[in-house]
Amino acid sequence: MKATTVPYDTNAQWLIVVTNTGTQPLADVTLKSDVLTGVDGVTAPSGCAVGNVIAGELQPQQSAVLATCVTDAVENVADLFSGADIVNTAQAQAVVTDDAGNVLPTADGTGDWTLTTNTDSAEVNTQLFAVGDYVWADANSDGQQSAGEVGVGAVVVNLLDSTGTQIATTTTDGSGYYHFDSLQAGTYQVQFVLPDGYMWTQALNGPTATDSDAGMTTGLSQPFTLGVGAPDMVASDDVSVPSDYRGTLVAKTVNPTIDAGVVVPQPNIKLTKWVCDSYDAAGAPTCTPWASLSGAEQADMAGIGVQAADGTWSVMQGVAPASSGWVKEASVPYNGTAAWMIVVTNIGNTPLTNVSVNDTVALQEAGVADPASQTLTVGSLDSGASAVVLASTPNITSTGTDASGDDKTPIGTSGEPTYATGTDVVNNAVASGTAVNPSTGEALTKPDGTPADAVVSNPSNAEVNTVLYAVGNYVWIDTNQNGIQDNGEVKLAGVTVNLLDSTGKQIETTTTDANGYYYFDKLCAGTYQMQFILPAGYEWTTADSTGSTDADNSDANQATGLTAMFTLGPNAADMVASTDAADAPWASSLTATVVNPTIDAGVVLVPVVIPPSVTPTPTDTPVTTPVVQPVPAGITVQTGGNPATSLATGLGGAAALLVLGAVLVGIAYRRREA
User: Fold this and answer.
1) Which residue ranges make up each domain of the chain?
2) Which residues contact 529 (CB under 8 A, 6 or more apart)?
3) pLDDT of residue 568
């Protein structure tokens, strides 16, 4: 053909044919000239040297190939650039001979009869190419151009050659499209410049025509080829070419598939707080270390679910393995160490750096200042990653009102419960960090170019309930002196009772109420001793008598009024829920939830025998007159659960005591005179 397009990376070839159109044979048919036009500095292609001669004679009406001319591969010949129409024009000459092969002279006899042919040309079109397409906001971060997603304008796009040198630049139009026109065949890259407030979506995910080609950290596409037969090339008027530049291109062929998706960063951080509820005998926490938990258990404790298409992570309330000892609200032993584990998780779609936790312990005790807050360093977290920091508050020993034992009401958000403020030891934590743009490795910016705000987590609390305890019961008159609380025996009001700590120091005092009961509320776990103050006119009954139990014996030492040391705590003897203390009517008014209702004291009246008086009588008949032991002034006795009237000395009191059967009687003897 007279004009053709040279495919990319192939040779351009011309065929020069000479025809004898006369009536005489021709000899010495020679290529007189061969000129390559359209390319500076090139005069002839390889293989078409001037002077080529056809061997033998060319008879009338006979044709022969004078030369076959071939260029080097188009991509390797700098002068044969794309878009150049390269024309090869040739001319031949020959001498005229007779039938015997003798050269005929010219008409004037001055020389050989030489003929020069016409000139003729054949054209090679090396063709221009184009590339382009689209920058869009990938709302669902799936790396594909989905329905409803829009283009992003004013994004800078650079074209690089095969050496990485920038050779052209442009910006996306209002619809997000760009293109580069009139390009030579060759190898290129497109460099997209990330706009502020965005990061690149995932690259090369799905069909080429609708994926994102920008590298997530560089914004560079993979190298691609423009040329006839190269991948993804279509005619410039093809319907697949966006209308924004279809029909306006000089190039006849275009690659319309080099796109870039951007996503809006969604940095986020989640904090989950746990407290240890497992302790050894010394009060040291023994919960399972984070590193000893399985990956699934760690994810459950972090409260992190699956990753969504936009790169963020679903959240839920954290769940700890039952065997791990980690809980949201725990009981710490007396003088133990409260240990908290803080799990920080990056649930956003960007990396985080400078992650730290502000940790505050609130003792909630009136008149006692909280410890200073502390900043715990986490460091950097990739999306979906968790890290753990630990906090502790040692020696939970305070007595008084440092704990309430109240149930706590979940009031939290973000999938995590927090707890209403009580008087327990509450550890409050909030995590924060700086979002990093994974595409640049630098701190994230807003669309206006200003630094993004710090990322702050949900608050999360875990509480140590120091568990309030109570102790009490009553003082009674042990009528039969057996050291056991028997039916019908009365309780004694107004008796002083002191509570001592493990060192013997008095820490609280009270008196038995009108029904003979006493109690001490809001006590921490620990070792205590009770001191009963003996009322006048009484002595202590037998302590821990044979056949008695803790529930019906007397605990007061007969010499001192002191009980043995006893323990209040979760595993201590005689502890029951305050709702189960059947013989402790005061338990319903307690703040404490666990009580020992067995610390009692029995008293007996001091026996007084009045010597008998003898009066002679006529008949010498002995007459007995009962003399009743008086109740000490100010002491009240109670039977059947009701207080008796405070009794003074005298017969009226004696008569009442005879009815009750609860006094000792002295006998006086009288003789009738003879």
Assistant:
1) 3-125, 129-263, 312-464, 469-605, 623-670
2) 499, 500, 501, 502, 504, 562, 563, 564, 565, 566
3) 87
The span from the CA of 237 to the CA of 252, in Å, is: 8
CATH for 469-605 is 2.60.40.10
pLDDT reported for residue 664:
36
Return d(Cα 95, Cα 515) in angstroms, integer. Answer: 152
The set of residues, in sequence order, having a beta carbon less than 8 Å from that of 584 and lying 6+ positions away, is: 472, 473, 517, 519, 595, 597
Measured CA to CA, the distance from residue 396 to residue 402 in angstroms comes to 9
pLDDT digits (tens, 9 = 90+) for 189-225: 999 999 988 999 989 999 999 999 999 889 999 999 9
Nearest CA to 129 out of 18, 214, 5, 42 is that of 5
Return d(Cα 622, Cα 668) in angstroms, integer: 10
Give the Cα separation of 223 and 228 in Å (integer).
16
pLDDT for res 361: 66
Question: φ, ψ for residue 304 (rounded to 5)?
Answer: -110, 135
Give residues with Cβ within 8 angstroms of 371, minimum separation 6.
361, 363, 393
**Of residues 536 and 15, more confidently modeled:** 536
User: SS3 of 229, please?
Assistant: coil
Spatial neighbors of 365 by CB under 8 A, at least 6 apart, are 398, 400, 401, 402, 423
Q: If DSSP codes are grouped into helix, strand and coil, which group holds residue 487? A: coil
Query: Where does 129-263 sit in CATH, by number?
Result: 2.60.40.10
**Please, are residues 191 and 165 in contact by the beta-carbon 8 Å criterion?**
no
Q: What is the pLDDT of residues 382-405, one digit of tens each?
A: 999 999 988 665 544 433 233 333
Q: Mean pLDDT in the chain?
A: 79
Please state the length of the chain: 674
What is the rounded CA–CA span in Å between residue 343 and residue 431?
10
List the beta strands (DSSP E) in 491-650: 491-493, 496-500, 506-511, 517-523, 526-532, 538-540, 566-568, 576-577, 594-596, 601-605, 623-628, 636-639, 642-643
Topology alike, domains 129-263 and 312-464 = yes
Asked if CATH classification 1.10.1740 holds for the domain at 312-464, the reply, yes or no, is no
Fold of 3-125: Immunoglobulin-like (2.60.40)
State which amino acid sits at residue 57: E
Dist. CA 530–CA 516, nearest whole Å: 16
Q: Using an 8 Å Cβ cutoff, are 578 and 592 in contact?
A: yes
Return left, alpha or beta for 534; rule: phi > 0 is left, psi -120 to 50 is alpha, else beta: beta
Which of 68-77, 245-254, 529-538 comes out lowest in average pLDDT? 68-77
Beta bridge partners of 361: 427
Backbone angles phi, psi at 182, to 5 degrees: 55, 50
**CB under 8 Å to 546, separation ≥6 — which residues?**
none
**Tokens coding 406:** 């109240």
Which phi and psi angles does 580 have, rounded to 5°?
Answer: -105, 5
Residue-wise DSSP of 121-176: EEEEE---EEEEEEEEE-TT-SSB--TT--B--S-EEEEE-TTS-EEEEEE--TTS
Q: How far is CA 450 from the centre of its chain?
A: 26
Buried b / exposed e over 26-43, threshold 16 CB at 10 Å, is bbbbbbbebebebbeebe
